[in-house]
Amino acid sequence: MGSPVRKVCLVGASGTVGSAILSELLAARCFIVSVLRRSTSSSVPRQTEAIASILSVSPAFDTDELSQALVGQDAVVAAFPVSDVGQHLRLAEAAARAGVLRFIPADFGSCDASNSFAQECAQLYRDKMRIRGYCGELAARSATFSWTSLVCGHLFDKDLYEGYLRFHLDTCSAEIFDGGHDRASSSTLRRIGQAVVSVLRDHLEETCNRTLFIQSFNPTQAEILAALEQATSKTWRTKHIDSDVFLERQRRRFEEGNEDALEEIVFVLGTRDADWSHKDSFANRLLGLENENLDNVVSQVVAKHARAGKEPPRD
User: Any idea where the NmrA-like domain is (predicted)?
Assistant: First the structure.
């Protein structure tokens, strides 16, 4: 028997994660995919011609309006930032009211939001736990509504390319934390889309009302460095950093009102406390996802960097 999920509505389809999920949903060729966006949005999702419909709602994200827009959808995937937790709570409630079978909240990210230290450091993780909790409440009150959270670790290909992982392709230099020996799960953008498809198409029952952890691989910083040196044919310069000292400095900056420090906090937490492979809810095997090849992914990122006219410096 096939999955009861046929119609899928994606919210945030033009964003980094959303566009990757959209590509995999469309590539699966088994879903009728709609995109929900604010009426004031000027963003245009990729592959518009393959999207069944674009649903527009007012910027207020009113629960009643959202619910009406979602009637007839089997699944709703939220892939927009948790900057306003109220919008995500209203979207979940609207999905439940509309008779949606499965809701996937915007829990994709570097850290497990249930980590007490992560919650202490940043409101973001308290908000994500609030969304998880509310999804649980909605499921308990409904005979049909259910949810699945997918936690993916750092967005490896995007974050490596942009230097967020502290490997700087422009200068062939790296900042190595705590000796570079901690393993951290991370996922390519494509892997996130693959996981969403697997949940909705193949494993709806097994993933019901659960938080699951996925990865493309879980390398150490030392292993990433070795892959980069191989891909660039260069010896990289390294600077070693104590993560406790770094984290405390960023927490002080954030408390002083520097919003940029939150990204630094997320980076550290997603680097030193994010090895999903030992968790009971590690779901790669359940979802039929094999680890990707680190060397191949790193080589692809380096090649993309070179195509952009950013060749590494000569020795």
Answer: 7-274
Cα radius of gyration rounded to whole Å, the chain: 20
Task: Kindly give, in sequence order, each residue whose CB lies less than 8 Å from that of residue 257, ignoring residues fewer than 6 positions away.
Answer: none
Tell me the pTM. 0.94
Q: What angle do CA 75, 194, 181 make, to 5 degrees?
A: 125
Outline where 142-259 has alpha helix (H): 156-162, 189-202, 221-232, 243-255
Q: How many other C-beta atoms can be found within 10 angstroms of the C-beta atom of residue 196?
A: 28
Distance, CA of 69 to CA of 55 (rounded, Å): 7
Instruction: Report how far residue 141's alpha carbon sits from residue 309's, in angstroms, rounded to the nearest whole number.
Output: 55
Q: What is the DSSP letter of 104?
A: E
